[in-house]
Design a protein that fits this description.
Layout: H1 15-26, H2 31-38, H3 42-51, H4 64-75, H5 80-87, H6 91-100, H7 108-111, H8 128-140, E1 141-144, E2 149-155, H9 159-169, E3 176-178, E4 192-198, H10 200-208, H11 230-241, E5 242-244, E6 248-253, H12 255-267, E7 273-277, E8 280-286, H13 288-299, H14 307-317
Antiparallel strand pairs: 1-2, 2-4, 3-4, 5-6, 6-8, 7-8
Helix pairs in contact: 2-3, 5-6, 8-11, 13-14
């Protein structure tokens, strides 16, 4: 008369598996998922449920207070499938209610993120920590604008700085550890930690702020910063690409960048000079009195810095 049902559709299951199917259905699992789990057809599942007088779930309307909770959970980052399971409805019902409440639905790429990320961190550079980290990214960061990937790599003794930035931007993602390999020339390289941020918005924002790809010969001092943030940006840049020696403080960069650093130093009564080596310039100053002024300028009221360089500065100045 009609087509015969396949053996799969009417496969016999043990009493134990039948009870497991009932329990899964009561917990909110769909017929499709249960059928797939036991490698049987939908009709087999329905037959088991009907034989035990299990009432079939119907689509239902969410109550007003439930809709408010749905919106709250979604805004807190909970996915629509998880919310659907909480309320015993399908994902489409949740998305329909969210749209009706004018909630912006997350894109698939955002929904599929494995790690939490605060992508608006660099949108407005208005604090010490943001200015400092922008400075260190100017110096040591690499912004791949094509792949929208930002990398910051520091040697093992300076990993605390990476942990601080990681906590602010990418708190659930671990830093990557790279063990040093001995080179043929026996150069003693150090172990490194790497922070990687894969985010289009952050990559594009940093590029807007002057932290562009292949920036070595392009960087310009961000004079758009509020002047009270200059010191924090400079400290971050110094920690990334600065030098403190026995009797010398130095920062490398483009000629225009170094001229601005020299101007900042002049404003705190520090004399400096710039030497150019090809496309790279270096601004330098020396002498204990000059270095002490630079030290006080950079570290007074600063809460974020590399301990290693601050201690080196204090050793040079013989500060207790």
């Amino acid at each position: 008369m009609g087509k015969k049902f396949s053996e799969k559709k009417f496969k016999k299951l043990s009493l134990q598996k039948a009870e497991e199917i009932v329990n899964l259905y009561k917990k909110g699992f769909s017929i499709a998922k249960i059928a797939k789990k036991f490698n049987v057809g939908y009709l087999t599942i329905w037959r088991i449920l009907n034989n035990r007088n299990i009432e079939r779930r119907r689509f239902r309307e969410l109550l007003e207070e439930e809709i408010k909770k749905v919106v709250s959970l979604y805004n807190d980052g909970i996915s629509s499938p998880k919310i659907a399971k909480i309320f015993g409805v399908c994902k489409k019902t949740i998305l329909k209610k969210l749209k009706k409440e004018n909630v912006k639905i997350r894109t698939l790429s955002v929904s599929n993120r494995k790690y939490e990320i605060y992508e608006n961190f660099f949108d407005n550079i208005d604090t010490e920590e943001k200015a400092y980290f922008l400075g260190i990214l100017y110096a040591d960061g690499y912004n791949n604008e094509k792949s929208h990937t930002v990398n910051l790599s520091l040697i093992e003794p300076d990993k605390d700085i990476l942990y601080k930035l990681n906590k602010l931007v990418h708190p659930t993602k671990d830093l990557r550890f790279v063990k040093s390999k001995k080179r043929k020339d026996n150069y003693n390289r150090k172990n490194q930690y790497i922070l990687t941020i894969n985010n289009k918005h952050i990559s594009e924002k940093l590029a807007e702020l002057g932290c562009v790809q292949a920036k070595t010969f392009k960087i310009i001092f961000p004079e758009w910063l509020d002047k009270h943030l200059y010191k924090f940006f400079t400290l971050g840049y110094f920690d990334g690409d600065g030098y403190i020696g026995t009797n010398e403080f130095a920062i490398a960069g483009t000629e225009s960048f170094c001229k601005k650093i020299s101007e900042i130093l002049k404003n705190i009564n520090v004399n400096s000079y710039i030497r150019k080596n090809g496309n790279i310039s270096v601004v330098r100053t020396g002498g204990r009195n000059q270095l002490l002024k630079v030290y006080n300028f950079l570290y007074k009221d600063s809460t974020i810095y590399m301990d290693r360089k601050k201690l080196r500065f204090e050793e040079v100045l013989k500060l207790s």
